[in-house]
Structure prediction request, 159 residues.
Amino acid sequence: MLRKLILLITLLAPSMGVADLGDTYAQSCQEFGGRGFVNKATRTIGWHPRNRSYTVWEGFVKNHCVVMRLIPDKGIIYTIQDAQRILSYNCGRDQLWVAIPSDGDPDFLASWQTSDNELLGSLYSDGVIQIAYTWFIKSQGLLEDIDKAPIEQEPKVDM
Prediction:
């Protein structure tokens, strides 16, 4: 019985207190211990989990987390190794994080994308870690998309 309990704790431990892309708002509330606080300017919801040294801000589309930022408490700065550890919790079994060049942008210490280009991760020079779905970052105009159609608006269809 004790072995099963230890195994269960070991399997669950990596996900405890760590934000996950794709979580619903209810899952985030349960994971972080409350309803969070709303930032209307950025349209995100934030939590400062107990016994953690960061604030997490999540953005939701259709009730699923599509972008999150981990902002360290004052005096703490995430390192590239910290970011890589956190990124490993936010990818599928068939996905690998691959470093991508930052093109000399001083705001970024490092950036990664998954091998299937579904997720993007960044470590900013102020120690903030951001993880997001690529489609969301592109939809915000924050990433150049050479394959995008030249018309911005969705087509109208008469029914």
Observations:
- The beta strands are 37-39, 44-47, 54-61, 64-72, 97-100, 108-114, 119-124, 129-133.
- The first strand starts at residue 37 and ends at 39.
